[in-house]
Amino acid sequence: MIPFELAVPESLSQAIALLDGEGVRPLSGGTALVLMMKAGVLRPTRLVSLRKLGLEKIEADGELRIGAMATLAALERSAAARQGWPVIARSLRTLSNVRVRNVATVGGALAHADPHMDLPPLFSALGARVTIAGPAGERSVPVEALYAGYLENTLARGELITRVDMPSMGKRRAAYLKCTTRSADDWPAVGMAVVIDGDEVRAVLGAATDKPTRLVAAEKILQGGEWSNPQTLRRAAEAAAEEVQIESDQHGSAAYKKQLIRVYLQRAIHEARRAIH
Fold it and tell me: Are 230 and 199 part of one and the same domain?
């Protein structure tokens, strides 16, 4: 790696000011960033550590508020998240491995914009929003609005994710399933997040597309509680496979992934129907 400056600000305003300039990157958990630096993909002149900004809290008061610097392991173990949003803890158990989860942060996992990550499609299906702070102030956007394409987020220069706000589950039921070509914690070929809310279904696809993608055509077919009808469910699965643009890669051919979408949409809906929340 080339030499770089490491800055450790103690306030959010200091961090935002230090992020101004070319070749500057924020450093949260560093699990992806350091690997990209070692590979020469990124060559930052300055890293701005976020570890002293007090952004690691996880709190619940109707909504679940997750600080951007909370580690994935902390979220997985959080009593508040496990009680009110158990689908999150279930999904995190096979996100990479425990060593990575002990270091990687929620904000970093979202900002990295790798389409194979599990949290973006799940958080999108759950209706989560991210709070973003930057030189122009603070703004809040849905999780899916963070992504422009493969490894491309929509954060402007100097902006940081500071918090994720998750609405109450209420009577909603949710599931996240993924298919990996090797071990359970490997990068998935397809990730499928489903939330059932009364007679409505929200389905978000990950991994097979360059960013988390809502399966709008499938959702329309499933409106009105039609997800309980096997024939309608098969029609929705077919629509889901046809409404997205899939490209072949090392995780599988486009045809293989389309078949996975057909199968995993149905499996995720069945899994959500059995869920407690």
Answer: yes
Which residue, 177, 236, 232, is CA-closest to 208? 177
Strands 46-49 and 5-7: parallel
Q: 21 is in which domain, residue-wise?
A: 5-49
Same domain? 182 vs 117 = no
Cα(56)–Cα(259) distance, rounded to whole angstroms?
Answer: 39
Confidence band of 108 (pLDDT split at 50, 70, 90): very high
> What confidence tens digit (pLDDT) does each residue in 231-259 have?
999 999 999 999 999 988 888 999 999 99
Residues 66 and 162 in one domain: yes
Task: Specify whether 84 is located in the same domain as 149.
Answer: yes
**Closest by Cα among 161, 75, 67, 174 to 112:** 161
The answer to whether 48 touches 9, Cβ cutoff 8 Å, is: yes
Q: Which residue has the tokens 């979202």?
A: 110
- Yes or no: say if 244 and 208 are a contact pair by the CB < 8 Å rule: yes
25: domain CATH number is 3.30.43.10
Q: Return the beta strands (E) in 107-151 as ranges.
A: 129-134, 137-142, 147-149
Same domain, 117 and 151: yes
pLDDT at 184: 77
Does 101 have pLDDT greater than 70?
Answer: yes
Using CA of residue 167, residue 218, residue 143, residue 206, what is the dihedral sign?
positive
Q: Between 39 and 109, name the one with better pLDDT.
A: 109
Residue 57 is given by DSSP the state -
Q: Which of 134, 150, 158, 154 is nearest to 142 (CA)?
A: 154
Number of domains, the chain = 3
The answer to whether residues 190 and 253 touch, using CB atoms and an 8 Å cutoff, is: no
Upper half-sphere CA count for residue 142 (Cβ side, 13 Å): 11
CATH code of 148's domain: 3.30.465.10
